[in-house]
Amino acid sequence: MRILYKIGITVFSGMILTSCVVGKKYSRTELNAPDKYREELTVTGDTILHSWKTYYKDPLLVNLIEKALVKNNEVLIAVKSMEQLDLNYKQAKLSLLPTLDFDAAASRSYLSKNSLNGSLSAQFTSKDYMDDYSANLRMSWEVDIWGKATMQKRDAKAAYFAQKENLSALKTRIIVQVAQSYYNLLGLDEQLKIAEKNIELSDNTLQMMKLQYNSGSISSLAVNQTEAQKKTAELLVPLAKTNIAVQENALQILCGEYPNTIERSGNLNVDEFAFEMPSGVPASLLSRRPDVKSSEYAVMSATAKTGLAKATMYPTLSLSPSIGINSFEFDTWFNFPGSVTKNIAANLAQPIFRKKALRTAYEVAVLEQEKAVVQFKQSFITAVGEVSDAMSRLKYADERIKLAEEKAISLEKATSDASLLYKSGMANYLEIIAAQNSALQNDLDVVTIKLEKLNASINLYRALGGGVE
């Protein structure tokens, strides 16, 4: 009874000490977020971003994105990682429960006749061997004095939600890549149309030059340079077709399928995203951006790991009660209560010679936590920077498109005027070639600027936290 009393006192003391958690709870570090972005756009009163299905209006693009989110292999791998962490989290929640093991064994030992056990066994059983039959139920429980189970759950929970945010960030990246690839295809289609249009224009000019050459009005130099101008436009055709095929292959792979053609509709429409977008304030990125949230969960995980490393330096208290049945004869193995055995044990362990190693492990954990805090700050700064970059590109893209389109009108008129002046003998062939070449280059520049605007719109939507939802 006395030993039971002492063990009871030990257990009670352990339960009281369970509240002595050595690890600190997580508190967000001060980020000193700015009140506004460097560039500002017109915003609505609504601070909730549109769904990507509403943001992207092309039904063929929406179908491609949906396919990629389901079949992309990077996404599938990330989903499997989520399932692993979910199991780890469920396991961590069970860490407070005691372990219970059952074992049953039967053995026969032939003892030395000259040994004390052998001689006594022979006298008692009249046999030259000894049987042993046992069955035991053992429980083991480490009293959670320092809150290790709580910190393990915090660590597993933070890791789980960090991976969940990583999955959201990955899906967001996939959405962006699919959208940009799709619009790049439309841009390449536009470049192909421009090249074919310029080939037709150059061919008309060349036919006119040949007629004048045959009549002796111009030299072969004019014909050759006009042919070279036509070849410049013709060279764009196989280049555009090659880039289209490569882009289609990349987009199909992104969607988890083998390379093939991509169905697409419409032209490169920069007005597709011409609605007011809520930019909000930089601090809102903490709740919107999955990569920022993932970085914060990494700090939470590191904080829990630091507490666990500190707890290993303190004593551990474990209880190991067991009950079973034991007999040297099979017939009396299950003879109750004569065969019943009981054991109650309490163990208090304090690391001594490993103290230096445990202290070093704790200091390493502290440094890892400090690194995680710095990385969290950097992820937030990067997020604010990405929003500002996209806003800057979007802000001036319209101005550039307007100027390029005005320039295109002037160059188109210049090309037409040069042809008329040439026919009337008031301009030379070099002026026609220069006008056509400038018009061709400017048309290609307009497509490039439109793509830049579309990419800026897509990146701004992502940077502000728009994504999977």
UniProtKB/TrEMBL annotation:
<keyword id="KW-0812">Transmembrane</keyword>
<feature type="coiled-coil region">
    <location>
        <begin position="394"/>
        <end position="457"/>
    </location>
</feature>
<keyword id="KW-0472">Membrane</keyword>
<dbReference type="GO" id="GO:0015562">
    <property type="term" value="F:efflux transmembrane transporter activity"/>
</dbReference>
<dbReference type="InterPro" id="IPR010131">
    <property type="entry name" value="MdtP/NodT-like"/>
</dbReference>
<protein>
    <submittedName>
        <fullName>RND efflux system, outer membrane lipoprotein, NodT family</fullName>
    </submittedName>
</protein>
<keyword id="KW-1134">Transmembrane beta strand</keyword>
<dbReference type="Pfam" id="PF02321">
    <property type="entry name" value="OEP"/>
</dbReference>
<comment type="similarity">
    <text>Belongs to the outer membrane factor (OMF) (TC 1.B.17) family.</text>
</comment>
<keyword id="KW-0564">Palmitate</keyword>
<dbReference type="GO" id="GO:0005886">
    <property type="term" value="C:plasma membrane"/>
</dbReference>
<keyword id="KW-0449">Lipoprotein</keyword>
<keyword id="KW-0175">Coiled coil</keyword>
<dbReference type="InterPro" id="IPR003423">
    <property type="entry name" value="OMP_efflux"/>
</dbReference>
